[in-house]
Amino acid sequence: MQKRVIIIDDERLARKELKKLLEDFPELEVVDEAANVEEGISKIELHNPDLIFLDIQMPGKTGFDLLRELNRTPEVIFTTAYDEYALKAFEVNALDYLLKPIEPKRLADALQKLDEENEDVSVSNVSSTPGRFTLNENDQVFVKDGERCWFVKLAEIRMFESVGNYARVYFGVNKPLILKSLNALEERLDQRVFFRANRKHIVNLRMIEKVEPYFNGGLLLEIQGGDKIDISRRQAVKFKEMMSL
CA 149, CA 59: separation in Å to the nearest integer? Predict the structure, then answer.
């Protein structure tokens, strides 16, 4: 089955050259291209590609800005004139970084990584109402906090914590803040995996290590990493029903 590809680069010749190189990979179909972030987002929402080739430095908004605005991210290979060492400042789990001008051998190496990706990393079909579809645990999202960026698979996020109009995202040793309310996140997350424990926390049910009785009929959850989250009595009833306790 062919993988759908979109090329996003403000240089027309760069898009043309990359498209020509990709003709040697029949398993890939270039379904569209874009010259800026706004156009790129529109094309991604339209085609729901499996892979995007993304320039970083474009007029107006950068490639990182584009990733931050997506609801869910396809696989990404950066095509950039940036120095590799500068890119290391960005903790983004992209498939690869191709320095311009792109060498055919480097392109082949990058695409080999695409074949090696775990099959359970999926990019689900976009709903007919953009922005309202549910994210499942195998979807990967783009998180940006200041100058630091990450691609994160939702299954790796153990908890969301409300901090005013922001939410703190807990994964690995990282705890970045994103400009999203907990209520907005709750609407988008798969409730079979992410549970609204209380007013301030949404927890990943797969990350719970211990459950204990707590104050006034509630429960106390211990999450991987050592965090302890209390569940109110009302939510504890719902939690027990979900977990068949």
Answer: 20
Span 212-223, average pLDDT: 90
Sheet strands side by side (includes 228-231)? 208-213, 219-223, 228-231
Question: What letter would DSSP give residue 172?
Answer: T
Mean pLDDT of the chain: 85
Q: How confident is the model at residue 119 (pLDDT cuts 50, 70, 90)?
A: very low
Whole-angstrom Cα distance, residue 99 to residue 106? 9
Homologous superfamily of domain range 157-243: LytTr DNA-binding domain (2.40.50.1020)
Reported as a single tens digit per residue, the pLDDT across 67-81 is: 888 877 889 999 988
Domain ranges for the chain, please list them: 3-116, 157-243
Q: Report whether 141 contacts 73 (CB < 8 A).
A: yes
Cα 29 from Cα 43, distance rounded (Å)? 14
CATH number of 3-116: 3.40.50.2300
Q: What is the pLDDT of residue 216?
A: 82
Which residues have a Cβ under 8 Å from the Cβ of 187 and sit 6 or more positions away? none
